[in-house]
UniProtKB/TrEMBL annotation:
EC supergroup of this enzyme: hydrolase
Entry keyword set: ATP-binding, Hydrolase, Nucleotide-binding, Transport
InterPro entries assigned: AAA+_ATPase (IPR003593), ABC_ATPase_HisP-typ (IPR030679), ABC_transporter-like_ATP-bd (IPR003439), ABC_transporter-like_CS (IPR017871), MetN_ABC_transporter-like (IPR050086), P-loop_NTPase (IPR027417)
Name the UniProt record assigns to this protein: General L-amino acid transport system ATP-binding protein
Organism phylogeny: Bacteria, Pseudomonadati, Pseudomonadota, Alphaproteobacteria, Rhodospirillales
Coiled coil, from the record: none
Length: 254
C-alpha cells in the first residue's frame, strides 16, 4: 500500500525564514550566518548587548537594510532587489521604533491615516474610522486631534503602535520600543503590547524588558557579535542559559 502523505496541518506555518543571512557594513561583518524561522503567531524576543546586530537583523526583514548573502523569505515571498517583492513584504510587516518616528507636523489622526489613504488608497472616512478604532485599542482616542509634540513619550509610542496596526500587518517588529521612555511610561506601552500579543499577531521584539519576555514570548533569542548565540523558551532561557556570553549578559541586566 502506498504511504499516506503527512497531513498538511502538521506542517509548521513558517512566516519568516532567514537562511544563512550575512550582512556587512563596509568591512564590518554585522550579521553572521543568521538562521531563523518564525512561525505564524509566534512572539519572539531578541536581546543581546548593544552593537550585537539586533536592529540590523529586524531591519533586514523589511528591507530597511539590505543583506548580502543568504535568503530571507517572508510569507512565501523572497526579499530580493525586486521592488514588487519589497513592496509586498512591507505591506505585511509593521515596525515600531525606539524614537516613535511620528510626523511632527501632522495630527495624531493624520499620522494614522496618511499611509492608508495615500499608499493603500483607502477612502478617507474609512481610514479615519480604522484609525479611531486602533486609537481606542491603545487607549488614547481623545488625543486624535493633537500633534505628537503635545503628547507624552508613552502616548507617542502608543500612537506609533496604532499607526502600524492601521496597515493591518501580519507581522509586527518592535525595536526597543520602551528604551526612550521615562520609567513611569514603560508599563502603559508594554500593557498595549501584551494585549496585542494575546490576540495572535506574529511579533518580533527587540527589548531588554525581561518581564515582558516572560509574559508573552514563546521564544527568547540571545545575539552577540552578529550571531544568534542561543535561543530557548523563556523559562529555560532565564533559568538555564547555556553559553557564558548569555550568562554574563543576563547577570548584567537582571
Ligand atoms: P544593536 O541593535 O544590537 O545595538 P545594530 O544592529 O544597531 O546593533 O548595530 C550593529 C553594529 O553595526 C554596531 O557596531 C553598529 O555600530 C554598526 N552599524 C549599525 N548601523 C550601521 C551603519 N548604517 N553603518 C555602519 N555601521 C553600522
Ligand atoms: Mg538596536
Amino acid at each position: 500500500m502506498a504511504a499516506t502523505p503527512a497531513p498538511a496541518a502538521t506542517e509548521p506555518d513558517v512566516l519568516i525564514q532567514m537562511s544563512g543571512v550575512n550582512k556587512w557594513y563596509g568591512e564590518f561583518h554585522v550579521l553572521r550566518d543568521i538562521n531563523l524561522a518564525v512561525e505564524r503567531g509566534e512572539k519572539v524576543v531578541i536581546c543581546g548587548p548593544s552593537g550585537s546586530g539586533k536592529s540590523t537583523l529586524i531591519r533586514c526583514l523589511n528591507r530597511l537594510e539590505e543583506h548580502q548573502k543568504g535568503s530571507i523569505i517572508v510569507d512565501k515571498i523572497e526579499l530580493t532587489n525586486d521592488v514588487k517583492n519589497i513592496d509586498a513584504i512591507r505591506r505585511e510587516v509593521g515596525m515600531v521604533f525606539q524614537q516613535f518616528n511620528l510626523f511632527p507636523h501632522l495630527t495624531v489622526l493624520e499620522n494614522l491615516t496618511l499611509a492608508p489613504i495615500w499608499v493603500r488608497k483607502i477612502p478617507k472616512k474609512e481610514a479615519e474610522e480604522t484609525a479611531m478604532y486602533f486609537l481606542s485599542r491603545v487607549k488614547i482616542p481623545e488625543q486624535a486631534g493633537k500633534y505628537p509634540g503635545q503628547l507624552s513619550g508613552g502616548q507617542q509610542q502608543r500612537v506609533a503602535i496604532a499607526r502600524s496596526l492601521c496597515m493591518k500587518p501580519k507581522i509586527l517588529l518592535f525595536d526597543e520600543p520602551t528604551s526612550a521612555l521615562d520609567p513611569e511610561m514603560i508599563k502603559e506601552v508594554l500593557d498595549v503590547m501584551i494585549e496585542l500579543a494575546r490576540e495572535g499577531i506574529t511579533m518580533i521584539c527587540v527589548t531588554h524588558e525581561m518581564g515582558f519576555a516572560r509574559t508573552v514570548a514563546n521564544r527568547v533569542i540571545f545575539m552577540d557579535r552578529g550571531q544568534i548565540v542561543e535561543q530557548n523558551e523563556p523559562e529555560e532561557f532565564f533559568k538555564n542559559p547555556k553559553s557564558d556570553r548569555t550568562k554574563l549578559f543576563l547577570s548584567q541586566i537582571l
